[in-house]
Amino acid sequence: MDFTVLKYFQAVARNGNMTKTARELYITQPNLSKRIAQLEEEIGVPLFEHRKGKIVLNDYGRMFLSSVDIAFAELKAGMENVQRTYTLNQNILSLGSNILHYLAIRLPRFSEAHPEIGIRQLDFTTLELVQNLLDRNINYALSNEMIEDERIDFQLIDNNPYVFVMHKNHPLAECGKLSMGQLKEATFICDTFRFQLSQLYQACRVYDFVPKVGYEVQSNELMYNLLNDNRGVAIIPIVMACEMLNLHPDADIRICTITDDIAPAIIGIGRLKNQADTQAGQYFIEFIKEGLVREKEVIKKFGYGYLIGETDENI
Question: Signal sequence: where (predicted)?
Fold first, then answer.
């Protein structure tokens, strides 16, 4: 019994018509009928009944179709597992993230350190991250939201408090510490991947006002240009604010800490619980954690280490 005749059998069972199925399969109708008859002869059981120009499965045919469908599904799953294992053994990492540009700006350094490891990098929503992990389309997921699924091992690796960032000429720029209520008249620049609009509206609701959102951006550089041009106030993680100052030493921007109780930005790594560990995966996780250590040093450089528990507050 070969796979081709089983595919023919599935198609005829689905269509209920020999002529239509023959056209789909690009074979002649007599040849298709002959192959189905040979299958029935090989099994020793009739599988179809002819009813008014239609060919339909009988009870034996339905039973056999169920087995054929299961067999092909198992073969497909087995092939996919072999392909994934082969990919792992070829030192190829498939990575996903719901933080736009997070991996894109870090992976070049990883590739320099490990040129032997291939990279496949994709951006997803959180729901897409979870599904792609479960489907084994990616090996690891970097997420700024908690992933709570019993099939996924999610490790929280960092958290960062949010801060206000504004131009030095803003009336409140030299305050050092501010509440959301003091910014009722401000125009906000919202980074939709790091502090979502829903979070902004919730924080402002405590002070009974609706924020004026002037810009919604998904680019660090655009965010910096808007801030440096005094176009508004941003709420971003302290690490992102300090990276801006580090990249642009002459920037005309200031950082103010937030006195309100706003949950910090998080970063975690997710992977399937039953996923085999690889050397490439270990290198990647070590690289990400080493990068977080470097980022903490940048935060401390600008005197904000106390926000992440690294030093005492500067007076």
Answer: none
Which domains are present in the chain?
Answer: 3-87 (1.10.10.10), 90-159+265-300 (3.40.190.10), 162-258 (3.40.190.10)
Q: How far is it, in rounded angstroms, from Cα 111 to Cα 115?
A: 5
The 8-class DSSP code of residue 181 comes to G
Percentages helix, strand, coil for the chain, rounded to the nearest 5?
A: 45, 25, 30
* DSSP 3-state of 252: coil
Residue type for position 177: K
Is the pLDDT at 315 greater than 70? The verdict is: no
For residues 223-232, give the mean pLDDT: 95
Contact yes or no for 197/271 (Cβ under 8 A):
no
How far, rounded to the nearest angstrom, does the alpha carbon of residue 49 sit from its chain's CA centroid? 49
For residue 176, the one-letter residue type is G
Helix or strand (DSSP H, E) at 234: strand 233-237
Model-level pTM? 0.69
The 3-state DSSP class for residue 213 equals strand
Tell me how far apart the alpha carbons of residues 101 and 9 are, in angstroms, rounded to a whole number: 49
Helix (H, G, I), strand (E, B) or coil at 185: coil
Q: What is the pLDDT of residues 81-113, one digit of tens each?
A: 777 666 666 678 889 999 877 888 889 999 999
Sheet holding 118-123, edge to edge: 118-123, 92-97, 140-143, 265-272, 152-160
DSSP 2: -
Do strands 233-237 and 212-217 pair parallel, antiparallel, or not at all (unpaired)? Answer: unpaired
CA distance 166 to 11: 65
What residues have CB less than 8 Å from 43, skipping those under 6 apart?
64
